[in-house]
Design brief:
Chain lengths: 321, 389
């Protein structure tokens, strides 16, 4: 039971506040989706238009707070690894309960979803007739259960951590051994992993070159799992300079100059704007080109960061790991 | 954007009184929270620094669930376990000085022998000859002061368990490196310590074990448990985790209580921000009549909230750092120090990490902004024609 660690309390409290606001936003969203009529001049429509502002403000607040809070969440997991026997980084804490990994996945999914909502909202506000108001609130109603799921998982996870039970360290969780969850990826031959990774990256560059937003979005969507798997299977070993240390979490520790935060931020920026660019193009918003460029910059930054480690290792030692 | 920000700033100064009140209260709350967390963090850092100097494994004998004397001979058997660098029996305990109502920590050392702690070893070397002369002691500054106040300037009469008196002269006073651990210490020769506690010649309080390779600690601890099933084997890691838990628990309880305060504050802010004066309403009405959109007014309101909360945060954290590390946190540190008279006048080591600052930030600033969200929206959606009429 680690609910009394101050960091955990802070996170649960903030997500509690966010959930309350989200609930309020949900109630208004449902009314808007049911009753919205842009052509009507009724008092109801007038009230709804005003309330739409409140929902938008709330969702923007949730998103902009969630971004730093997510980093803080990772940091807290790292802190908790000091208390849990066996855990040496956030990986052990994440796997302390069955909910941990799902919590992580849902949290990341939420960031993308809320971010996309804001993109749609921004586009909507630029148009005089608010054409996307109904779809965007419907979109929020669909996001809401995911957000609640995240909050529920968070309680289950932090509540379920037992400081007396020994958890696995990332060394076993991400090993090539058959029992580990990701052994299938780790045991992939290196050329295949690297081919996939750089092939996908080339696809993104090509999509940018030929100005194909749909291709950019799809390539970026694919790039999220490909980048993470290749990071676990190949690149992380060079960051640690240890052939058997496959871990996506230890990167976030001070021993490696917190390089993980930079990598994941770059990856998020790259893939997020890649997807957002397609959304913008579909909604006939002129920022699509600009966002594709940002996406490309983020992706290039990520690729450069992860590629730096093996290359510098090879230059220093003259061998591959 | 820049103009809206400038407008927000000027709007804040125009209603200085109301905003100053909120700003002060909010800063005070953050200050209290920041004070508690920085003290906790500093104490934790000091504890961990102390912990580094401690032996890897401590072996205690448990009888009927309570710790009792252990046979000093066992140290030799433990020292034979592969991987153990050294195993030393320790003789130490507390002596209650009834007149001043304080406990001294009596630590027995072997003069010129190796000790489990380098700081003690240097004491033993420095005052070795004097300690060997017998019936002498080296005391911490706090002890010396207490004794002097009770007219024991050069010597002290210990009352032994059988009631007889034992005169021990003060051979020296040592200035400890980490004041937290050594203020109440009395160092004597091991034989004398046994005499004062009424322990037999072969007995020791516990046995400390040095292990060269940290990786081997759990295995060695298990072996000791197997050889002597009546012992409790405590490793450094165990201590570290339990310290961490104690501090987390303390600040966790505090934060849990603090949340109540912050929610009360939430309501106050909500109320304050909702209750617009007719002048403010008029202002918003005029702005909207001039063509300001709902989004613009929302932005101004948000900027106001940001300026107040971030300003209060920065001010409070700066003040808290000064209060804790400059003034040594008067009043607040007593929460953590316990009530013993002889607790040392220690200095908190300067430690401040991003994590603590982030924790303080996340428990205060977003809550403030959340409280202003709905009132800001209400203000921004006021009807221009209604309020300037």
């Amino acid at each position: 039971m680690n609910l009394l660690s101050p960091d955990v309390i802070a996170i649960l409290m903030l997500d509690g506040i966010l959930s309350l606001f989200a609930l309020l936003a949900l109630a208004i969203s449902v009314r808007i989706v049911l009753k919205w009529d842009a052509d009507a001049t009724t008092p109801l429509q007038y009230t709804l238009e005003k309330r739409a502002y409140l929902v938008a403000t709330i969702i923007e607040y949730i998103f902009y707070l969630k971004l730093p809070l997510f980093l803080y969440f990772i940091y807290t997991l790292d802190l908790l690894s000091n208390i849990l026997p066996g855990a040496m980084c956030a990986a052990g804490v994440t796997n302390a309960t069955v909910y941990g990994m799902w919590l992580f996945v849902v949290k990341i999914l939420d960031l993308y979803l809320f971010g996309l909502w804001i993109v749609v909202h921004r586009i909507d506000m630029r148009r005089p007739d608010y054409p996307y108001t109904k779809p965007k609130f419907l979109f929020f109603i669909l996001i809401f259960p995911v957000f609640m799921l995240e909050y529920w998982l968070e309680w289950r996870h932090f509540g379920g951590i037992d400081p007396h039970v020994i958890v696995s360290c990332c060394g076993t969780l991400f090993s090539a051994a058959k029992t580990s969850a990701v052994s299938a990826f780790v045991t992939l031959p290196t050329p295949v992993t690297l081919g996939l990774f750089y092939g996908n990256f080339l696809l993104i560059v090509a999509a940018w070159f030929f100005k194909k937003p749909l291709l950019t979005a799809l390539a970026n969507l694919l790039f999220i799992p490909v980048a993470i798997v290749s990071l676990i299977a190949f690149f992380s070993t060079y960051v640690y300079e240890m052939p058997h240390h496959h871990c996506p979490f230890c990167l976030l520790q001070g021993d490696y100059h917190y390089v993980g935060y930079a990598m994941y931020t770059a990856l998020f920026v790259g893939t997020f704007f890649g997807i957002a660019a397609w959304v913008a193009e579909r909604l006939a918003y002129p920022a699509a080109k600009r966002w594709m460029k940002w996406s490309l910059i983020g992706d290039i930054l990520y690729v450069a960061l992860v590629s730096y480690y093996p290359i510098s290792f090879y230059l220093k030692n003259g061998v591959w790991l | 954007m820049k103009n809206l920000f400038a407008f927000a700033l000027s709007s804040l100064t125009r209603r200085g009184g109301k905003n100053f009140f909120i700003f002060t209260i909010f800063a005070l709350m953050i200050f209290i929270l920041a004070g508690i967390f920085t003290i906790t963090h500093a104490l934790k850092a000091e504890m961990f620094a102390t912990l580094e100097a401690l032996p890897e494994i401590t072996v205690q004998r448990i009888v009927a669930g309570r710790q009792t004397d252990i046979d000093a001979e066992r140290a030799e058997r433990i020292a034979e376990i592969p991987g153990v660098t050294d195993a030393m029996p320790r003789v130490w305990g507390y002596y209650y000085f009834a007149k001043a109502g304080v406990n001294f920590s009596i630590v027995g050392v072997e003069a010129f022998g190796t000790s489990y702690k380098s700081s003690l070893e240097s004491v033993a070397d420095l005052f070795g000859e004097k300690l060997m002369e017998g019936d002498t002691m080296v005391v911490g500054p706090g002890v010396a002061e207490t004794l002097a106040r009770n007219f024991f300037k050069d010597y002290f009469y210990f009352v032994k368990p059988d009631g007889s008196l034992k005169k021990v002269t003060i051979a020296g006073i040592f200035k400890p490196e980490t004041t937290l651990e050594s203020n109440d210490i009395v160092v004597v020769e091991q034989g004398l310590a046994r005499e004062l506690f009424g322990m037999s010649e072969e007995a020791a309080t516990d046995i400390v074990v040095k292990v060269a390779n940290d990786e081997e600690i759990p295995t060695i601890a298990r072996k000791i448990r197997e050889i002597y099933p009546d012992t409790r084997v405590v490793t450094k890691e165990d201590l570290r985790i339990s310290y961490q838990n104690v501090f987390d628990y303390k600040s966790g309880i505090f934060l849990a209580l603090f949340i109540i305060a912050i929610f009360t504050f939430f309501i106050i802010i909500y109320d304050k921000a909702s209750g617009l004066s007719s002048e403010e309403k008029r202002e918003i009405g005029i702005l909207k009549a001039l063509g300001w959109k709902i989004g613009d007014i929302l932005k101004v309101k948000l900027f106001e909230a940001l300026v107040i909360s971030l300003g209060a945060y920065l001010l409070a954290v700066t003040l808290a750092v000064g209060y804790v590390f400059g003034l040594n946190a008067p009043l607040m540190r007593d929460l953590f120090m316990g009530y013993s008279v002889l607790k040392p006048p220690f200095e908190l080591p300067f430690t401040l990490d991003v994590g603590t600052l982030a924790l303080i930030f996340f428990t205060t600033v977003p809550v403030y902004i959340a409280a202003t969200l709905i009132p800001s929206w209400k203000a921004a959606t006021l009807e221009a024609d209604e309020v300037i009429r």
